[in-house]
Amino acid sequence: MPSPAIIVENLSKKFRIGTSGGPGYHRLSEMLTGLPRYAYNQLRPPRPESCKPTALAAGSSQPTANSQPPTAPQSPDFWALKDVSFEVQPGEVVGIIGRNGAGKSTLLKILSRITEPTSGRFGVRGRVASLLEVGTGFHPELTGRENIYVSGITLGMTRSEIKKRFDEIVDFSGVEKFLDTPVKHYSSGMQVRLGFAVAAHLESEILIIDEVLAVGDAEFQKRCISKMGDVASGGRTVLFVTHMLDAVRRMCSTALVLDRGTAIPFGSMIDKALEFYGGVGGLEGLSTNVNADELSKHVNPWFTPLSFKWTDSDGTPVPPVVRKDQQSLIVVRGRIAEVSSDFTVGYMISSSDGQVLYWSCFTDMNEDEWPQWRTGDWILTSPVPTHFLNEGVYRIELVIKSPGRDWICRPGLNSPQLCVEIKGGLSESCRWTSRRSGFMAPVLPWQASLQTGENGDL
């Protein structure tokens, strides 16, 4: 068996909440921008004794000789990673999933040698190409062409090796028209396209991708996923952090779930990993109501969401555990400040492992059935066919698109979401089976009739 491409043993990373100074890792940019202040503090003459603060007498507003500067309260420690251990074999495509704040980006920064762990150790065999955020590794003042060569040299490639791949990189990125423009003038999507093209096409043994592909459009995401499959089939190792669960299922050979800084390796059991992430263990918990703070991020003139709920048939809030025979509604309340007939509101429902069951929007109806919008607060309701759904945990994500067809709430990226568990059904009512596989488990009527007569006639 070949040696692992990546070995991680008891890796931990601690941060001090509420502090920015102190010992630890500092970026070069921070050190350079701090040099003038440091030089000034070192070179300025000492203050005369008469100008120094004097003591505060009791009951006085003036300083006293024995007064000490107040000490800042001790900030608590936060462990972004705690005793994480796993191995990655050469050629594996590892999907790393977990909710926000689980430690995914911290792990990738350590493996990319951007930051140092607090404790533990790791080993990486081969050159690493990383794309951790928009513009990673690019100098904003250099052109796209120059940044391609700088990135390649940073990876240890020769100029001739970079030149050999240059045309492929430019063609894949689609930024040929702006190749000699400084990267600081690129949009975030253009930077991601070029960054991924460089990372995927240069000859690194390990490719590390954080959740940046969501910045690109759907066509580019599809190309990236296809390219990562080609990279893996060529024997290179890929670590892929994403919330695009369907991409994990289609592309990854192994899965690792991070939950509050701890790692849960699922190996090749991708569906089990997605089920864990999509269930109570991976979401913020079951909820039939989205808080106002989450909705306030999606203000727009056409339909600003004010509430997003799962209720019973009377509009009454319900617990997050719902029975199959319970009539349920999705209720969206929103404010219209600018009248338009060309926007849509709806929801998308997916299973616990990230597979989409269906979408529903009010624009699915005939246009003459659409609401006659005017400014004010509106309530939209739609029934949920719980009687067709199987038992399990489901996510319901809000969908809002603007008149320009731009996303305001996009499922899988920035959409507020509900999470409910549906219980009851065949596992309780049928002695022939427990919970069935699949998304749907409807109880349908059957009829039986006794055939009589020589020819089977009734």
From TrEMBL:
Comp. bias intervals (Polar residues): 59-69
Region span, Disordered: 42-74
Similarity comment text for this entry: Belongs to the ABC transporter superfamily.
Gene3D superfamilies: P-loop containing nucleotide triphosphate hydrolases
Short name of any one Pfam family annotated for the protein: ABC_tran
The organism's place on the tree of life at top rank: Bacteria
Record gene name: tagH_3
Record protein name field: Teichoic acids export ATP-binding protein TagH
Keyword Disulfide bond: no
Keyword annotations of the record: ATP-binding, Nucleotide-binding, Transport
GO cellular component: membrane
ABC transporter domain residues: 65-285
Keyword DNA damage annotated: no
PROSITE patterns per UniProt: ABC_TRANSPORTER_1, ABC_TRANSPORTER_2
GO terms of molecular function: ABC-type transporter activity; ATP binding; ATP hydrolysis activity
CDD domains from the UniProt entry: ABC_KpsT_Wzt
Lineage, opening ranks: Bacteria, Pseudomonadati, Planctomycetota, Planctomycetia, Pirellulales
Coiled-coil zones: none
